[in-house]
Specification:
CATH topology of the largest domain: Alpha-D-Glucose-1,6-Bisphosphate, Chain A, domain 4
Strand content: 15-25%
CATH architecture of the largest domain: 2-Layer Sandwich
Order of helices and strands: HHHEEEEEH
Radius of gyration: 27 Å
Strand order of the largest sheet: 1-2-3-4-5
Shape: elongated
Helix content: 25-40%
Number of domains: 2
Number of helices: 4
Length: about 170
């Protein structure tokens, strides 16, 4: 009954080519990989090795510490600052707000998700999704249509603020 748990014999390894304990891995040229091949490719964890305790990191040019365009990131946070934040991921470039009810209209609420899609300050690097709900009863909300211009105006406001931040940054240097 426990035969499947036993140590493998040589015949077990024969049914799986290349899996015997003494077999060597084959390189890309059809020959066995040598230590020099592994060293040339950078080893198991790449050319820089495995860095689990911090230490020096190699930087390739200027970096803001986040994975997306820093002007778009700050502009999005500034533009959506009137809404409560649910989550913000600067490395993935996603900002999600919680539901917001405008003071002038207590029968509707909005939620926004902003995606920063790149490191360049361009109009296609920002995408906003707007969700709207209307109140249909006590604590009952129903999804409603968002006016088409709402998304465009939010994206334009974010881009305008990002350009302002970039100009201010260039003038302060």
């Amino acid at each position: 009954m426990l035969a499947g748990c036993g140590a493998g014999s040589q015949t077990d390894y024969d049914s799986y080519p290349g899996s015997a304990p003494g077999d060597q891995r084959v390189g890309t040229e059809g020959r066995a990989a040598t230590k020099a091949d592994v060293k040339e490719r950078g080893g198991l964890f790449g050319g820089d090795g495995l860095n689990i305790f911090g230490g020096e990191e190699k930087k390739e040019g200027p970096s803001s510490g986040i994975g997306v365009n820093s002007f778009l990131w700050r502009a999005t946070l500034d533009t959506l600052s009137f809404m409560p934040l649910n989550s913000a991921d600067p490395f993935g470039g996603v900002i999600i707000t919680d539901w917001y009810t405008p003071p002038e209209s207590s029968d509707e609420r909005f939620k926004l998700t902003a995606y920063i899609l790149g490191t360049a300050l361009r109009s296609d690097a920002i995408k906003v999704s707007v969700f709207r709900q209307v109140n249909v009863g006590p604590n009952q909300w129903q999804d409603a249509v968002v006016e088409p211009g709402t998304v465009t105006s939010m994206e334009d406001a974010i881009l305008t603020r990002a350009r302002q931040l970039r100009i201010d940054s260039a003038n302060s240097e």
